[in-house]
Amino acid sequence: MSKSAPDINNLPYADGDFFAFEQLLSEKERDRLAEIREFLAREVKPLAVDYWNRAEFPFELIPKLAEIDLVSPVRRQGHSNLFAGLVHAEATRADTSIATFMGVHDGLFTGSIEALASQEQKDAWLPDIYSLKKIGGFGLTEPLGGSDVAGGTRTTARKEGDSWVLNGAKRWIGNATFSDWVVIYARDVADNQVKGFLVDTKLPGYSASKIENKISLRIVQNADITLDNVVVPDFYKLAHANSFRDTNKVLKVTRLAVAWQAVGQQLAAFDVARRYAVERQQFGRPLASFQLVQSQLVQILGNAVSSMGMMVRLSQLEDAGQAKDEQSALAKAFTTARMRESVAIGRSLLGGNGIVTDFEMAKIFSDAEAIYSYEGTHEVNTLVAGRSITGISAIV
């Protein structure tokens, strides 16, 4: 058997879709996915490492993202959830931070408006949101509240006449250093229920400071938000956000998106590891010619394909209106665990070159840690799934 290096630009299974899941899309959706994939390769991937190293956001990319029109592919554009998931995976494959920027703006922020606003509110806000003329953030997590924020939201809302007064703090809020609006979830002191508000970031009493020194998603501008007697007109209280059960309608869908990110992250690791293994010469032949290296590549691919298979089925259930919270929880827990294993194998395969961003794998490895934790930790999602199969809650 020849052990010379093959043409790196003409490798089999270039898209990593080993079981041809993309064939489940309509022809129109496949063409659109190919268009988006080409855009990401041309506009996002070349700049990602540099901006990640500098922990800065490429603002020049926003008009291009607006032009390719990625916001709300299901509700507004009529695509399937499978298509939306594959797009999010591809965005993550190109760069996790830019995918997270879109996930915050499109999934969490726009999803809150689409799911919980009145029709009058949607008519007033969504056109600028869809066109990225207004950038949004999603304020739920707090400095002292993460997984327990459902029952322990400390940020408060008090109705005063025709307005609401918000006080409190939020943490890890993506896009919040530059966003125009942030959806803030706060506990109404009158009935102790969590409600949602669209907050203009220019309002007096609102401030956001960038969280520094991150080792993950360095392009994403996460912020600590302080709300000091911020007065929000009653029209900006989301009409159908009246309890945490309503908030969870948004989280159920975005948890799917994060699980799709775990797929994309594994495909990114596979891309980099396979290319390196084929190009890198060791002992006078390609690294890929060694059995243990091929085993590592197949393990990454197997993790990615198994994760993708789970997500394809869950997307089909979502399209049919049959997906359940515990299924999203299991998917997030499973795919991120496989992702963590995959990126670790990829980092190891690159040896010393795996710890510098010049070879990209170090960025992929580091970004995976954020995906593993946000939208519900692995442990909490595991317990949500465990509760569904035993009827017993072990969370508290």
Description:
This protein has 396 residues and is an alpha+beta fold. It is built from eleven helices and nine strands. The chain has helices at 27-54, 62-68, 81-94, 96-116, 119-130, 149-152, 244-279, 291-319, 325-349, 361-373, 378-390, and strands at residues 136-139, 156-160, 163-173, 181-188, 194-200, 206-210, 223-233, 281-282, 285-286. The strands form two sheets. Strands 1, 2, 3, 4, 5, 6 and 7 form a seven-stranded mixed beta sheet that branches. A two-stranded antiparallel sheet has the order 8-9. Helix 3 (81-94) runs antiparallel to helix 4 (96-116), helix 4 (96-116) runs antiparallel to helix 7 (244-279) and helix 8 (291-319) runs antiparallel to helix 9. The longest helix has 36 residues, at 244-279. It is globular and about 75 Å long. The termini are far apart. The model has no long low-confidence stretch (mean pLDDT 94).
Secondary-structure element string: HHHHHEHEEEEEEHEEHHHH
- What portion of residues belong to β-strands? 5-15%
**Strand tally, please?**
9
Derived structural class = alpha+beta
What percentage of residues falls in helices of 4 or more residues?
40-55%
Q: Please give the radius of gyration in angstroms.
A: 21 Å
Distance between the termini: 58 Å
- Unreliable stretches covering 5 or more consecutive residues: none
Query: Mean pLDDT score, rounded?
Result: 94
Given the structure, what is the number of helices? 11
Largest sheet: 7 strands, mixed
Shape: globular
